[in-house]
Amino acid sequence: MLLTTTPTIEGRPIREYKGVVTGEVIIGANVLKDFMASLTDFFGGRSGSYEKVLIEAKDGAIKEMMQRAQALGANAVVGIDLDYETIGQSSSMLMVATSGTAVVI
Length: 105
Hints:
The protein is an alpha+beta fold. It has helices spanning 31-43, 48-71, and strands spanning 2-3, 16-28, 76-87, 93-104. It is built from two helices and four strands. The chain is elongated and about 45 Å long.
């Protein structure tokens, strides 16, 4: 499955539009990750534990979107957009939503 943030794929004309597809993942960060991130925030540097959670959520949302595109008979998704939000009490949950247009090329 070809995935792109652009509306077209150079040299590959779109033969059929199947519709908008989405993928959503909501994932929580646990207390240990919060504690480790607070140390990173205090001392500086990158938060590997939060980065891992973010990558996991992004990959899950993209996978879900691809599965929905395949179910429609598409072999590509164009115009992909990724959105990140914190939700829940104390913003303790991370939501990653992705959307795009399922197409046949």
